[in-house]
Amino acid sequence: MRIGIFDSGLGGLIILKEIVKKLPQYDYIYLGDNARTPYGNRSQDVIYKFTEQAVNFLFKQDCELIIIACNTASAKALRKIQQEWLLQNYPDRRVLGVIRPVVEKAVLVAKNKIGVIGTKGTINSQAYIREIEKFTPKADPPQAEKPQLEVLQQACPLLIPLIEEGWENRPETKKILRYYLRPLKLAKVDTLILGCTHYPILLKEVKGIMGIQTKVLNSGEIVAESLADYLARHNEIESKLDKAASVDGSTMLTMTTSAVPNIKFFVTDLSELYQELGEKWFGKGIEFEKIELK
User: Fold this and answer.
1) Around 122, how many Cα atoms within 13 Å sit in the side-chain half-sphere?
2) What is the largest CA-CA distance in the chain?
3) What pLDDT, in 10s, does the model give residues 194-216?
4) Considering the chain, what percentage of its residues have pLDDT values greater than 70?
5) What is the pLDDT of residues 108-124, one digit of tens each?
6) Residues 119, 158: contact at Cβ < 8 Å?
7) Average pLDDT, rounded, for the chain
8) Confidence band, pLDDT 50/70/90 cuts, at residue 140
9) Residues 90 and 231 placed together within one structural domain of the fold
10) Does 183 lie in the same domain as 104?
11) Residue 144 CB burial class (10 angstroms; 0-12, 13-18, ≥19)
12) Least confident range of 20-34, 107-121, 129-143, 159-173
C-alpha cells in the first residue's frame, strides 16, 4: 500500500518533495489535476466533485493514506470526504489535509497577528480562521494567557497562473506579489501562512518583502513533520504501507527518479511546460503518466 498526494496542479510536488525527504522509506503516488487547475475560483460543488474523483482514483491505485495537498480542496471538500464519502466507500483508509498541521504550527509560534494568503476559494471558505479559533496553545505557566490572535487574510488569485507559467522570477510577478502582501506588511503580521502549495516557489521573495519581523512558514516541512507524527501514532495505518527498504535514504535527498524508483506521477494534462515545471520543482527525469479523472 502507498501514500497518495493529491493537488489541483503541480504545486503539490513541493509538498511531496519534503515528505520524501522526511520519510524516504515509503512508496508514493502523486496526482496533479493540472487540466482543471486552478480550483480557487470554482464553486464548492465542483471542487468537491473533482476532489472525490481524485481520491477515488488514488485509492484504486492501492493508496492506504491520502494527503490532499491542495489548500482549496482541503478547505472546501476534505470534511465531506472524511465524514461521508470515506465512511461509505473506504472506511478503513484515511484522507488528511494540509490546513490543520500548518495552523497548529502557526498558533504555536505567532505572537499577535497571523496573515494568510491563498486562492479566493481558500480565503472565502474561512477555513484557516475556523481552524485557528480551534487551537489555543498551552500557556506556560498554566495561568498565563496568550493574547487573542488576530487573523488577516489576502486572496492572491493571479499567483498560481503566473507560477504555472514559469514566471516566478519575472518582475511582473514580483510587483503583483508586493501588491498582495502590502496590506499584511502594513498590518505588521508576525506570522505568515502560505495557504497554497504553489506559493513556496516564491518563499524567498515573500520573506524579502515581509522582512525579518515576520515568520513565513514553510508548509512543506510542516506537513512532512505532521505526517511522520501521524504514522508514529497510527501503527494500524503505518503497518500496511509498503517499505522501500532497498533504497538508500541518503541518495533519496537528490530527488531524482533514479534514486526514488517507487514514486508514480499522474497528471490530467501533460505538456512540455508541465514537464519542465515538474523537473524544476521535484527533480530531473521525472516521468508523468497522463490519466483522465471520472
Assistant:
1) 30
2) 58
3) 999 899 999 999 999 999 999 99
4) 90
5) 999 999 999 999 989 99
6) no
7) 89
8) low
9) yes
10) yes
11) exposed
12) 129-143
497510527: which residue's cell? 234
Cα–Cα distance measured from residue 218 to residue 197, given in angstroms and rounded to the nearest whole number: 10
Q: In this structure, are residues 152 and 116 in contact, taking their beta carbons and an 8 Å threshold?
A: yes
- The CA R_g of the chain, rounded to the nearest whole Å, is 19
Q: 104 and 178: one domain?
A: yes
Q: Which of 219, 244, 266 is the last residue of a domain?
A: 219
* Catalytic residue selected from 14, 47, 58, 196: 196
pLDDT at 245 over 60: no
Domain that holds residue 180: 100-219
Q: Are residues 202 and 260 in the same domain?
A: no
- Of 23, 70, 81, 201, the catalytic one is 70
CATH code of the domain containing 245: 3.40.50.1860
Most confident of 27-31, 166-170, 247-251: 27-31
Please confirm, yes or no, whether 63 is among the known catalytic residues.
Answer: no
Report how far residue 281's alpha carbon sits from residue 141's, in angstroms, rounded to the nearest whole number: 43
CA distances to 13, 47, 180, 194, 283 from 191, rounded to whole Å, are 24, 28, 16, 10, 30
- Rounded CA-CA distance 281/277 in Å is 6
Q: What is the DSSP string of 152-213?
A: EEEE-TTHHHHHHTT-TTSHHHHHHHHHHHHHHHHTT-SEEEEESTTGGGGHHHHHHHH-TT
User: How many C-alpha atoms does 188 have within 13 Å on its Cβ side?
Assistant: 2
Residue 156 known to be catalytic: no
Report how far apart the first and last C-alpha atoms of the chain are (Å, whole number): 22
Specify whether 215 is located in the same domain as 109: yes
